Amino acid sequence: MDRETIRRVLREVLHQAIVASLQRQLRNFVGILETNVRYVDRSTDLSFDHWVSEISAEMVGVRSYLRCHFSSTTARVITDRLLGVEPPHHGADHLLSSIGELCNIAMGAVKRRFVAAFRDHYGVEPELVIATPNTYPSYDQARVHRADGGRHRVWEIDFGGHALLCEASVEVDVDMLIRDFALLEPDRHDSLIGYLSSLSSLRAAILAEDRSAPLAA
Fold first, then answer.
1. Tens of pLDDT along 155-167?
2. What is the pTM of this model?
3. 66-88 confidence digits (pLDDT tens)
4. How far is CA 47 from the centre of its chain?
5. For the stretch 159-198, what's the b/e string if a residue is b when 16 or more beta carbons lie within 10 angstroms of its beta carbon?
6. CATH number of 3-208: 3.15.10.40, 3.40.50.720, 3.30.365.10, 3.40.1550.10?
7. How far apart are CA 79 and CA 210, in angstroms?
């Protein structure tokens, strides 16, 4: 398996896992049962009433970055359902916290499944780091650039007339991956290929998780 194939496989797995995890959190923890996901391949201007929540994660030669763009109305709908409080009994702090927590548990679910696949294959825990989510009103980052189909992708998740516009970037350090996997199993040249194959069910496993599944930080 050449370097570009390794990079492409990991990007595809993680992109699909991230958007599936956002759907799962909206369904199980916010109570939004029906969502429609649309891949966005155009630039979008969100200059009016624009908020951003972003979070990053580093996992064994891979760095993932998630940014959700949303309006205050969308944030209020999510907060109402998440907290079970009727408007207008929550303020801007609640809105920011709710979307930040949505990103946090979405990336946490990806991390948990990623760790489980790694542990099942190698018998050890990988080192993973997830940054604290950052949520804020933004007018200088309201231009969402066209997705490139590989490293950077954009989806729109629609529910009941509201939408989250989600950007995800996945950077893969193939040299680091090959080096670290060779250290784990120096006598197995197919070690990395076997691990990548084990990740193929990541998206389905995340979507299948029910409300009782534990949250991951």
1. 999 998 898 989 8
2. 0.82
3. 989 888 888 888 888 887 766 55
4. 23
5. beebbbbbbbbbbbebeebeeebeebeeeeeebbeebbee
6. 3.40.1550.10
7. 20
